[in-house]
Amino acid sequence: VENFGASATFQVIGRAVYVTGGFLAVYAGFSVVAVMLIYVISLAVEGLIRMIYTVNVVTTFSRRFSRSEFMQVLRGIMPFALTTIATLIYYRADALILYIIKGDVAVGIYGVAYSFYAFFVWIPIVLSRVLLPSLTERFKNNPKAGEASGWLWYRVVGILSMPAIFIATVLAGPFITFLMPESYAMAIPTLRILIWSIPAMMMVSVGLLLLTAIDREMLGAHITVITAVFIVIMDIILVSRYDVQGAAAAMVAATVLLGIPTHWLLARYLFSPQHGTIRTFGIIRVDRAAMGAAALATLPLGRTVVLAAGLAAYGTVAAGGWLLESRSKNLSYT
How buried is residue 132: exposed, middle or buried, by Cβ count under 10 Å (0-12/13-18/19+)? Predict the structure, then answer.
């Protein structure tokens, strides 16, 4: 049953509980641990509302489960439960470990950077919620069309996210200093590190969505859990040595790590050889290198020139790569 209006309303309620409770906790002088606890409570409230709505509006609930039926339901929800818990650790472990090792001041600096970073995090979340119903239906009715659509979205988010993050990196300093007091300028380097996890995060988001659409969600859950463990270990190591920026680096490293097995699983279970994934990712890397080289070469000339040169280099390589692939007899795009 597709009811996006109800789903969006429940999500807004959950976020309202989090924002209101978090604000009151900060105002009352509680630590970041209290704020994180309120976040967990907001998720529980949202989940409870969704369950009540489902039971009363979407479907009837039977209390007469046999053991086999109960185990079948449990197996069905297990991948999503594991993914939810692992994702919660993935996104929140850094602040908790930073608080334990470095204290409230470090968490405050990281929180400023993370508040701007969170805007970009919502992009893959919204994208996944919008795409899942249509992609699932397309895979059900026409697997080849579903594969083509999935490959298109997977490729597009990887290519288009790079220039957006490049712009955000260049403008992070002016943006924070314009909106925040001067004392928050310490968060600028941390934000510049954090946002480079977004390209991989967007591709991972679409990749896990595609694994769900082809009934491989347990594989996605496994690699998400492994990544959650990895980011905890990396946070402990890097925060101890590099403070706030170490937490940001751990996020980038964990996101890249999550992207590698996600792409391998897609190449194995979904994408046909005709889609040329190795060549595509080679082009994306060349895009990235060209943009970075152009930015470094023009760095003394000012922010505007850096933006123009970096985007021009990226666009040229991306357009050239797309043109070469479109002419290949072994590739097809939809």
Answer: middle
Contact 17, 45 (CB under 8 A): yes
Interatomic CA distance for residues 30 and 7, integer angstroms: 31
What's at 91, amino acid-wise?
Y
Q: What SS3 state is found at 231? A: helix
Q: Rounded to whole angstroms, how far apart are CA atoms 103 and 93? A: 14
Other C-beta atoms closer than 10 Å to the C-beta of 324 total 12
- C-alpha 305, offset from chain centre: 30
Q: What is the Cα–Cα distance from 317 to 29, expressed in whole angstroms?
A: 51
Residues 288 and 296: beta-carbon distance below 8 Å:
no
The torsion defined by the Cα of 186, 190, 191 and 195, in degrees rounded to 10, comes to 170
- 8-state DSSP, 103: -
Cα–Cα distance measured from residue 77 to residue 218, given in angstroms and rounded to the nearest whole number: 10
Beta carbons within 8 Å of 165's beta carbon, 6+ residues apart = 120, 195, 196, 198, 199
Mean pLDDT per 10-residue section of the chain, whose length is 334 residues: 63 79 74 72 81 70 64 75 82 86 85 78 68 73 80 77 78 77 80 86 84 85 91 93 91 89 85 55 55 63 71 68 56 42
